[in-house]
Amino acid sequence: MSRIKDAFDAVAAAIIAQKDYLSDIDAKAGDGDHGFNMARGFRAAQEKVDEMDDTSLPGPVLIKIGKALIQNVGGAAGPLYGAAFVKAGEACDEETRMNIKSFEKLLAAAIEAIQSRGRAEQGDKTILDALIPIHDCFLPENVEDKNLFEVLQEASKAAGDGVNYTKEIPAKKGRASLVGERSIGVEDPGAVSTMLMYRALYQFLKR
């Protein structure tokens, strides 16, 4: 068993366990299927990773996950999360380690992929409202004299703050944008998914 595969299994389990909750949030301003779509995609990704002969390197695993999400998650989330995982995988090289610098690099690649694919920015009530605050915690100017686990913990809080922020703003992208101001007061399901994934990874690494 590789630690990379175990980490992904922990992330997938968190999404699958919360599928009803995520769909309930989505139903308040969207189609109501976000959780079910995500659970289907992550189960498919687990199957693809299980088929891999070698899961010791993060790059190939992340790319395999991303492609499975693109093929199996319906709605807008599949292409966005899929592109994020693929680009993060492509950003991996022989320098990629379990350290602050590598986290920053892979998160930056994921954000760039989502911005490019979704034409979204922070403040549009999307995945990015959780993912960008997570990434910011790993920037060189924010990590001085901190170890990896201190930064991971700060990023976990930042993810939650990002989700709370999405409750205060109207949606500018996706199906929720059709209800405009009426989406205020509801968290963005993509931001919640992002927080759940990150916190599952954080809890796994803490063990």
TrEMBL record:
* Residue ranges of domain DhaL in the record: 2-203
One Pfam annotation reads Dak2
Q: Does the keyword Transferase apply?
A: yes
Name residues in a coiled coil.
none
Whom does it interact with, and what assembly results?
Homodimer. The dihydroxyacetone kinase complex is composed of a homodimer of DhaM, a homodimer of DhaK and the subunit DhaL.
Summarizing the function annotation, the protein's role is: ADP-binding subunit of the dihydroxyacetone kinase, which is responsible for the phosphoenolpyruvate (PEP)-dependent phosphorylation of dihydroxyacetone. DhaL-ADP is converted to DhaL-ATP via a phosphoryl group transfer from DhaM and transmits it to dihydroxyacetone binds to DhaK.
Protein name per UniProt? phosphoenolpyruvate--glycerone phosphotransferase
In its UniProt entry, the species of origin is given as Selenomonas ruminantium
